[in-house]
Amino acid sequence: MVRIVSVLLPLPLPEAFDYEEAEGLALSVGDRVLAPLGARLAAGVVTGLREGAGGNRPLKVVAERLPGPPLSPATVEFVQWAARYAADGPGLPLAIALRGARAPLPRPERLAVATGRPPARLTPARARVLEAAAAGPSPPADLARRAEVSPAVVKGLIDDGALELRLAPRPDGFGPPDLDTPAPPLNASQAAAAASLRGMIAEGGFQAALLDGVTGSGKTEVYLEAVRAALAADPEGQVLILLPEIALTQALITRVTERFGAPPGEWHSGIAPPARRQVWDAVAEGRCRIVVGARSALFLPFRRLALVVVDEEHDTSFKQEDGFIYQARDLAVVRAKLEGASVILASATPSLESLRNAETGRYRWLRLADRHGEARLPDIRLVDLRETPPDSGRWISPPLAEAMAETLAAGEQTLLFLNRRGYAPLVLCRACGEKLTAPDTDSWLVEHRYTNRLVCHLTGFSMPRPATCPHCGAADSLVSIGPGVERLEEEARALFPEARISVFSSDTVRSAADARALVETMEAGGIDILVATQAAAKGHNFPNLTLVGVVDADLGLRGGDLRAAERTFQLLAQATGRAGRRDRPGRALIQTWAPDHPVMQALQAQDRDAFVRTELYERELAGLPPFGRLAAVVVSGRDPQALEGFVRELAAAAPNAEGVEVYGPADAPLALVRGRRRKRFLVRADRQVDLSAYMAAWKARVKPRGSIRLSVDIDPYSF
Ligand code: ADP
């Protein structure tokens, strides 16, 4: 009797393939193997094993197991679950899970070791080196430094045969965590929340908690206590902490390292391949017990996951929008469920989905109503731009300018928040009215003055700012419309020439190191005014920051997105929440043309619950998330006629199902990108409908031809 092995390959294929297991290989689910694929061998993962005959045609044989740790069976199950959820093939999430498995290991280190053979000549310097070498293998440069000699002395001893060089793998530094490091004493509400989380972890099995605490309430201290409890409860248990932004990882890594005496594994797109490989191996082997990472860390091959923390759980960066489309917060809950682990979702402004789960008792609801210690929540005031508008061509209103002057005079810091990169979001020709866009694309070119280019934020296209209008040829007719952070910086400089002003956006802060440097300068008081996009508006604590000015509060409310109000509320509550930490009271001024809008009213009254009630009520009436489900199908193609034909076919193929409504086709919000026209269907379903299964069934009825591409987005965010 042979065994049949199902092997999943990290490729866009609909399913795993069956092979025959070579004799004596004794494979298990999760093993990484080389499997024949056409004329070549492809690396894949075993997803199933069964006894059987080969069927009517002979199967190819899997003959080789790859070196290195396997994936845990729960990781394999999670990958398959994620694919089903996204109505996509399982090869794509597997590819994410294997990112790191095949990266090169760091080059081995060369260590000098004493051979015991005496050198030809023994000088005092050489004697010191040999004495230092007796302590154990060490890099030659270290040895020279410890013995206080020049590197040439060490080299001489190697040439003489008294020392020899050996190659040693580079250690990854993932030691066992120290669970007894003293932590700061928790205040009463923190202690109550921590006790509840400890209780949850002690009970074991899958459970979820929403850690819902105002900005500065000390949520991090609380969940670190839960991390400690989870690590203590299971000596092999592992913890994953997910963050929405790479820029926030450094601060947390420092805190985790201090708290547990060893650095956590760090996982995001900025990590170099060799370090990636070390983390991957150590996670799969169970040696790395704490990982701090961005959304893709969810696909790491944890051997025994005990706890997942999703910090800033409301953040839309947890939604992966291209390639394999998923919402990492939702999948974190699924992963915890499959592993029988606990999950903690933390935020000052939780998503309506999570609040609803807390309200209905599916999640433990832990609230921290006050800031830690003496710190108070900021005073929030709306600036009605209809009454006190800025001068023409300016964006800082007189009341905001006055508050900035006071803050500057008091030696305190201001954050000017504007969620727009670059200098101006639009360049327009005064002569012909043309708005400049990237070639064959609907989105405007954004003017960047630091680099003196016009950039398409969607496609990455860029060009120098032209002297004449590319459309009508008029000279000196192009004007920059509207502000970005660079233009705001210019305005702030004109108002306060003596102030030290910096810009924090993804253009000025390109790496985790840049972010750390800027945050440190800010903390050390080296900046008076920080002009920032959302890159700086979340997570950070700046003790001397007492004024937050929101320059264009209405920005996110334009456009017809279901979550526009929710998102604007979250973003502005987070941004204004940066003001006033520790002992200095803070204030926030919100510039708006619509001070009566429910979002502005809720922000001013600091009444999140009222906003949430109204918003949930409206969603319930419309059967929208979290009361119903949504999905989108986006179809794109180069040939408009072929696309029309396919879209009609797709519309006709939509299965009829109870509780499901299909809307469209309509132009997608960006109807033309890089020459591809885009059409979209929206699907709304009642909560009890398995919308993933519906979308998969629909997709299976059609076959995109030629240049046509189809993608399904479960729970779409941008529309
Ligand atoms: P949140 O994540 O809720 O915004 P943090 O966990 O970042 O808040 O805490 C805000 C600030 O208060 C941090 O500077 C943190 O070090 C401090 N802090 C929180 N809890 C305590 C505590 N129990 N003892 C001392 N400092 C604390």
Automatic annotation (TrEMBL):
One GO biological process term: DNA replication, synthesis of primer
Domain Helicase ATP-binding, residue spans: 200-368
Membrane-spanning parts: none
GO cellular component: primosome complex
Chain positions recorded as Zn(2+) 1 binding sites: C429, C432, C469, C472
Function: Initiates the restart of stalled replication forks, which reloads the replicative helicase on sites other than the origin of replication. Recognizes and binds to abandoned replication forks and remodels them to uncover a helicase loading site. Promotes assembly of the primosome at these replication forks.
Subunit structure: Component of the replication restart primosome.
Similarity field: Belongs to the helicase family. PriA subfamily.
Protein name per the record: Replication restart protein PriA
Species assigned in the record: Phenylobacterium parvum
Organism taxonomic ancestry: Bacteria, Pseudomonadati, Pseudomonadota, Alphaproteobacteria, Caulobacterales
Gene this chain is encoded by: priA
